[in-house]
Amino acid sequence: MEKVRVNLNYSKDYSYDILIDHDFVGNELKGISNYNRAHLVVDKNVYELYASFFGGDIFLLTSSEHNKNLDTVYDILKFLKNKKALRNDTLFAVGGGIVGDVAGFAASIYMRGISFIQVPTTLLSMVDSSVGGKTGVNLGDVKNLVGSFYQPKKVLIDTLFLATLPEDEFKSGLAEVIKYALLFDKELYEFLVHNKSDVVKRKNDVMIKIIKRCCELKAEVVEEDETEQGIRKLLNLGHTFGHAIEVDSDHEIKHGLAVAKGVYLEALFAYEKGMIGKKVLDDIENIFGTYDYDLNYKVRDFALFTNAIGSDKKAMSSGIVLALTSDVGSGIIKEGIDLDSIKKFFEGARWMRPQ
Q1: 232-258: per-residue pLDDT in tens?
Q2: Residue 251 known to be catalytic
Q3: Buried b vs exposed e over 323-349: b needs ≥16 C-beta within 10 Å?
Q4: Cys bridge to 40: 58, 120, 280, 318, which one at CB 3.0-4.6 A?
Q5: 233, 239, 251, 313: which one is catalytic?
């Protein structure tokens, strides 16, 4: 079993382990009595595929952006209340990023905070959302506007779940892996470029290696900047445009696929504005092209799209904030970007990269 430690400087009590292995979490879930009294929020599809892992009264959640709201949080809180959950109980979040975000937020506010354990079942949640303590829900058409920083007690990553992950969900998660490579790790970038066959076959040793590396990178960022005041902002690479794409498409485009488009289109915008060089733009297109991503996006509703960018929780009074890659393995933050310049970029529909 691989282990990554997230060390939070302000308190060893809040530091935690990420455990990564194949086919082990079923026994963990069956033996949850070891965690005092446990309560489970489980993705409905995961439950149907792995029903033998679960027993007793659980909260089933149909994962969709339309359910990622305060109504669902309220339902989970009622579930905990009806089960007479106590302050020293533990809430397990078993599913993808939506389950982890919503259940984690509910855990952070029930009785002013009970323990929760992340059991991510998608590649995206394994490499990104289950680690770092970001919890929250959407408010109207603005993603993740309401939430809290609330660290899990533990993260249990079982690559067994990848065997039943639909292809579009796998590519959604792989986009976040590529994000980490572009921001922090040129070696990971090269590994992804030269090992496509093993990656797309989801070979277990390869996936454990990739997941562990992303968790190490995420842990390093969280340890330095837990509440996103500095370096953690870089993890929003592709997310400013990506979130707007999700909203404009009425969430027909999955998060990671929207982020992939966002990474490229933000880079193209930045290149045209002289913020980055052509080589990194080519490198971005190269790796996404290697894995056959569609990087184009034609805006459906400009008012909705630009409002989503302007309402982005990362925006500041001085303007829009973009996380960018100045070179493979090196991220930068650009602040004070005028929203009108972004509007003009998308109105121009300049989808093809410069030659």
Answers
A1: 999 999 999 999 999 999 999 999 999
A2: no
A3: bbbeebbebbebeebeeeebbebbeee
A4: 58
A5: 239
